[in-house]
Structure prediction request, 413 residues.
Amino acid sequence: MNKEKYSIKEASRIRKVLKLISRMNVFVYKISRGKLWGQWAGKYPIMVLSVFGSKTGKLRNIPLIKVLDDDKPVLVASMGGMPMHPSWYFNVMANPRISVQIGSEKKYYLAKKLTAEEKEKVWPTVCAHYPDYDQYKKNTQRKIGVFSCEEKTLSNEWKKWLSENMDRGCDKNELYSILYHNGFHPELIAAEMNASVGSFQLQPQKEQSAKEEGIQKMVHAFKEAHKEIPVYTDVGFKKDNLNKDLHKKVLDFYDKNSASLQAENVAGGYIETDGKGSASHTIEMPNDLRDEIHESLLDKAEDWSGIRLLPTYVYGVRIYNRGAILKPHRDREETHIIGVIVNIDQKVDTPWALEIEDHQKNVHEIFLSPGEVIFYESATLDHGRPAPLDGEKFVNVFCHYMPYIKKGLTDEV
Prediction:
C-alpha cells in the first residue's frame, strides 16, 4: 500500500497556494481566450473546468491539464497526489453538469465518475497527456477520481419540445427544471430560452406524465412504421363546426381571462407584425379544458382522416393582434400530423384568410367564423395567413393529433 507523501498539514498549505495560482491562471486564460497561460510548466496544455459549487451554487473555474479521450475531456482529480480530493471533485459529484473551455472554445458536458475498471483502461491515455499523473498516483493511498465527459447539447427534438411548450405559455421555471433534470447545463438552457440562469427557480424533479410518456412512445412507433408521413385524405383539409356548448365554454373562459394576456414570442419567427407591439398574445388554458377540446374533436378528426388518432397537444388561446402575419409553414412532423384550428372570436374589418395548399399544390383561401373549425394535415401542407390582420383581434385555439400505431398493426380505423 502506498504511503502518503504529504501530511494533511503540508497538503493544506500547498492547497492554499495552488488555489491562488489557479485563480490567476483562470483569469488570464479566460480573458485571453487561452492564448496566455495556456500551458502548465510551459509544456502541457491546460483546459478550464467550470462547475457549480455544491454548497454555494456559485460557478467555480479550475485549470486542469488537458486530457482527451476520443476528443472528449477527461477530468483527473489528482491534487498532485495529496491525501485529500480537490474541492472541485465534490462539486462535480454533486452536480455533473459542467463546461470545459479549451482555448477559445467552450462546450457543455455531463461528467461521470469512472469505476476502478474504467479508470484502469483510460489511465495510459491520462499519463500519455501528463506523465506525472503516474507519480501522483504513487504519492497517495487515496483513490484518485477520474471523470469522463459526454457532450450534452440540446438536440432539435428538445429544441422543438421547448419551443412548443413556450408557445403554449407553460411555466418557464417548470420547463427549465425539466431540462435541468435531464442533464442539461443551466447556461445552455437559459441561452435557449433567451434569459439568464438567475431568472429561473429550479423545481423538484417530477415523474414524466403518463400522457407525455405515451406520446413519446407513439412517436417512436410511428417513425419505425413510416419513413415519410403518409397522405391521409384526398384534399388535405375540411371545414366543420365545434360543439356549440364547448364553443361557449371556451369563449367564456377567454372573456373571463382576457386580462391575463401574455405577449407571445413564437419560436421560428413565423408570426410577425407590420404594426406596433406584439403580433400575438396567449392565455394559458387549464388541462381539463384542453382535454375536453381534444375529446370533442377526436371522433370527427378520425372520421375525416380515416385513421385512429392519439391526442397530443392543445395550444391557445392565441390572440392575433392588428397587423399580425402568420408566415406559411408546416407543423411539427412528430406530433402535429393532424391539426385543427378553432376560431373562438374575432373582431375584424376585413375577413382574414387562411391560405393552405392541398396535396396537388393548389392554394386555397379558407375563412372561419367563430365556432367554426378546419381539420387539416398540418405537418405536410403549407399554411399561413400572409396578409396582415385588418382588425382588432382574431382568437384561435389549436388542437393536434398523431396517428395511433399499435405494434404489428396498421393505423387505419
Q: What stands out?
A: The radius of gyration is 28 Å. Residues 156-206 form one domain. The CA atoms of residues 29 and 36 lie 6 Å apart.
